[in-house]
Design brief:
- It is a single chain.
- With 133 residues, this protein is α+β, with helices and mostly antiparallel strands.
- It has two domains: 42 residues, Ubiquitin-like (UB roll); 82 residues, 2-Layer Sandwich (Translation Initiation Factor IF3), CATH 3.30.110.
- 40% of the residues lie in helices and 30% in strands.
- It is built from four helices and six strands, in the order αββαβαβαββ.
- The protein has a four-stranded mixed beta sheet, covered by helices on one side.
- Helix 3 crosses helix 4.
Length: 133
């Protein structure tokens, strides 16, 4: 039947009982499959978080500037990783670091939610922000 119509007999589901076959143009079938795979790959976005670095000594104006830049990233639907790095004796003042992180979040709470609260990892305080859905 396939050769009469000038088409190919294609086994669609070889593991099915009984195996499923279709009469179709194989070249066109492969083309559509590749096109569908490319579309799915395009839609499957790898999330690479944007990193914003802070310090305990980052002043209010600089914090506002970083918050504005972060807001631009959030509007583009990026995940934001905020890192506050402790240097030297600053490790004794972790509470100041947490305050700085909370102040930074307060500037962004209209556009972002906290995925991971400020958490100490070595000499870094880490917080992850997500865009509001």
């Amino acid at each position: 039947m396939a050769s009469e119509k000038g088409l190919d007999l294609v086994e669609v589901a070889p593991l099915a009982k009984p195996p499923v076959c279709k009469i179709l143009d194989f070249g066109n079938f492969v083309y559509k499959q590749k096109k569908l795979e490319k579309k799915q790959k395009r839609q499957q976005k790898q999330v690479e978080p944007k990193t914003i670095r802070l310090s305990i000594r980052t002043d209010t104006h600089d914090l506002e500037t970083k918050a504005r830049q972060t807001q631009k990233f959030i509007e583009k639907r990026h995940v934001i990783r905020v890192v506050l790095i402790f240097r030297g004796r600053e490790m004794a003042h972790r509470d100041l670091g947490i305050e700085k992180m909370n102040l930074f979040y307060k500037m962004l709470e209209s556009v972002a939610t906290i995925e991971q609260a400020p958490k100490l990892q070595g000499n870094q305080l880490l917080m992850i922000l997500n865009p509001i859905k």
